[in-house]
Amino acid sequence: MSIQPGDRIPEAILQYIDAGGVHKIDSLTLFDGKKMLLFAVPGAFTPTCSERHLPSFVQHFDSFRERGIDVACMAVNDPFVMQAWAESQSVPAGLRMLADGNADFTRALGMAMDASGFGMGTRCKRFALYAEDGVVRHVFVEAPGEFRVSSAEHMLAEIG
Fold first, then answer.
1. Active site (catalytic) residues
2. Which range is least confidently modeled, 51-65, 71-85, 115-129, 135-149?
3. 20 to 30 Å CA-CA from 59: which of 12, 155, 156, 157?
């Protein structure tokens, strides 16, 4: 079963790259004591993810920050792919690009999907969740092939 409003964020290790190199971060550290919006995509550089999903959050990043909300993007990719994707998409500083290379966090959230038919193995469903101090307040999972409820615009409307 996938994570639901009222659930606490599960613990897993994610990776990201910044000017200091590759870093590991515990999901509890990422979420605890913060207002956090996490959106996840099936894969960096894939069509909907690159043309619509990530760009919606890049465009509205300042609107989230004005509300005191941190934003992170996650995919079952390695941190080098996530960094290259961030650079290609002009991701602003502060929008953290998280790699869940082995899908550990994805599985803990109950968001894993089998994309073997597309040659992609285990991937993450397209979703967005908003949590406060590690407790999920909103979670929206897209139906296969859709991009609607996990957009930045939808999340801004839901969070208020």
1. 49
2. 115-129
3. 12
